[in-house]
Amino acid sequence: MQLNQAPAEGGTTGGSTSGDLKSNRKTWVKAGEGVTGLKDGVGKALTKLADGQTGLGDTAGSQSAAAQKELYASWKKYVSDVSGRCEALGGLLRGAGHDLSKSDEEAQAELEKLKVTYGDTEPVGGQTKEK
Q1: How far is CA 130 from the centre of its chain?
Q2: For the chain (length 131 residues), average pLDDT per consecutive 10?
């Protein structure tokens, strides 16, 4: 098995080795920083989303304005959760680079915690509501 474009024969790339498995601490840290860096773009999208709501005003009496307000609230939560997920996953990846001694089971447990915390939201559009 070859990870992170490690040399196929002999030597390491500055990381730990076990048999044919090679891992590079800097690569894990860089991947974590890259995922965490996605928050910047997500934050800009959230700002643009909020700016698009400027001037919406009172939604009473307008079904389309009320629907837009509901959709905005849904997407604001979703995009905020994506930002949080980027931060959490990036932290896990950086942590893997700093602590390569974790077992596969420990790393899997950390990823499972992310799934619970940042489970995908239920769709809200196109459904009738009970009143």
Answers
A1: 33
A2: 52 50 78 90 87 76 80 87 90 79 76 80 63 57
